[in-house]
Write a structure and sequence with these properties.
With about 425 residues, this protein is of the alpha+beta class. The chain has 14 helices and 13 strands. Helix 11 runs antiparallel to helix 12. The two termini are about 45 Å apart. The protein binds a DNA duplex (18 and 18 nucleotides) through helix 3, helix 8, helix 10, strand 9 and strand 12.
DNA sequence: TCTGGGGTCCTAGGACCC
DNA sequence: TCTGGGGTCCTAGGACCC
């Protein structure tokens, strides 16, 4: 089996550059929600020492005025992503979209002109059609394809394609790759592995199976098999239905006022309810959490969450808001400076599976019509103008987005972006 | 002054049932 | 004095991903 992992280079930065060619060859970062920290960096920005997750104020303190900052613009990235994915789909029978900027391609039947050349063709076509640069890694398993992709970026920058085509080449790649750079090995496991003398992916491939199982659970076993060239991660051509849905945000500034925070909780609940309806699922329970800013060492800290069971599974905004407020009232305490709150819905079941008694049924039909109308109106306006009374009518917890680019390819309204 | 948001999978341990 | 065992469901928490 041959698997390709196609990955857009510095995706968010590449999207911004597409519409602002002057950013080409400039150090550019894209900032997270709230303009909090860097979540995408151009090569030039990486060379200036900007790390993933560097807070904006630290970027300023090191290299003020040398770098272009963009607020993140998810509608734009989402639209370009689907165009890239559509182009990739034209090459192979099926692709697995792994994230906004990555997809796995089953290349097993593609070996007509040689897999390396096929990879080059894919890369050139995406660049020509969409304008986004991509890298391609081809190998016998997903984990090795990820590694090959990274190798292409690091070692074969100009070509941007690497085919790990036989055992000798794969072993070279494994020896080159340090454990902390393997897909599936995070900081904790990397430290553990290094302590035990496993430094490269090649070491890990040859580690005792017993040890892997004992210290890294079944995931470690799977990972080791993948490194040995035995595919152990299933294809996922159709996206699974979600198991949890979450909406949470940091506030633009620290908040103490219960009413304003409750409005945020209600807005995020409405957002979760909308996502549930889009997925055609209902939630069994809803969790609410609030927290202070852990980075402010001098402030008194408070973090709390609560799970509220719903009377019956629901995706109705008013039902969810009612329960969310109930939970919020239990966990909220005066006297703290809050930085963030969020809402998470759990135990999702298909809409069609929800059992109701007759009384509930009659009520639900009425509510469904109301909800459908609200969704339709809000969608056609391109923003959430129509709301329940407990939601916010103005942005008292508004997020910052000082460097926002225009929505070049979509009709989304500015307000949708900054409001939620 | 200023530090993201949205997910997944796995395991352990408790509650409960027979 | 001796005090089962297996199964399921749920939740919390850890680790990881982009």
């Amino acid at each position: 089996m041959w698997i390709a992992l196609v990955d857009c280079n510095n995706f968010y930065v590449s999207c911004e550059r597409l519409f602002k060619p002057a950013l080409e060859h400039q150090p550019v970062v894209v900032l997270s929600n709230n303009d909090g920290c860097a979540i995408a960096r151009s090569e030039e920005a990486k060379q200036l020492g900007v790390k993933m997750g560097t807070p904006e104020f630290m970027i300023d303190s090191i290299i003020k005025n040398k770098i272009v900052k963009c607020s993140s613009n998810y509608p734009l990235y989402g639209d370009l992503s689907s165009r890239v994915m559509k182009t990739l789909s034209s090459f192979v029978p099926q692709i697995e979209i792994y994230s906004i900027d990555e997809a796995f391609l089953d290349m097993t039947d593609m070996d007509i002109m040689g897999l390396h050349d096929t990879g080059v063709m894919i890369r050139n076509t995406v660049k020509k059609n969409i304008g986004i640069p991509v890298s391609v890694g081809i190998a016998p398993t997903k984990t090795l394809a990820k590694m090959a992709n990274r190798y292409a970026k690091k070692m074969l920058r100009e070509i941007g394609v690497f085919h790990a085509s036989d055992e000798k080449i794969i072993n070279q790649m494994l020896s080159y790759t340090r454990v902390e750079d393997i897909w599936g090995v995070g900081r904790q496991y990397a430290e553990l592995l290094q302590r035990h003398g496993f430094l490269t992916a090649f070491d890990l491939k040859n580690a005792p199976e017993e040890w892997m199982r004992k210290n890294m659970t079944v995931q470690g076993q799977r990972l080791q098999n993948e490194l040995k060239g035995i595919p152990s991660i299933e294809w996922q051509f159709v996206s699974k239905t979600k198991k949890n849905i979450c909406t949470s945000r940091s506030f633009g500034k620290l908040l103490t006022d219960k009413t304003i925070i409750q409005q945020a909780v209600c807005d995020y609940t409405a957002s979760c309810a909308f996502k549930l309806r889009k997925e055609r699922t209902c939630a069994k329970s809803i969790a609410v959490f609030v927290q202070t800013n852990p980075h402010r060492k001098d402030d008194v800290q408070y973090v709390r969450s609560i799970i509220v069971q719903l009377p019956s599974p629901s995706n109705d905004t008013s039902v969810l808001i009612k329960q969310a407020i109930k939970g919020f009232n239990i966990i909220f305490k005066d006297g703290y400076k809050y930085m963030k709150c969020g809402v998470e819905v759990h135990g999702l079941v298909p809409e069609t599976q929800v059992q109701l008694n007759l009384f509930e049924l009659a009520e639900t039909e009425k509510k469904k019509k109301l909800t459908k109308t609200l969704d339709t109106v809000n969608r056609s306006l391109g923003k959430n103008l129509v709301k329940y009374a407990v939601q916010s009518s103005e942005n008292k917890y508004k997020l910052r987005a000082d460097y926002l680019s225009k929505r070049f390819t979509t009709n989304f309204d500015e307000i949708l972006e900054v409001n939620l």
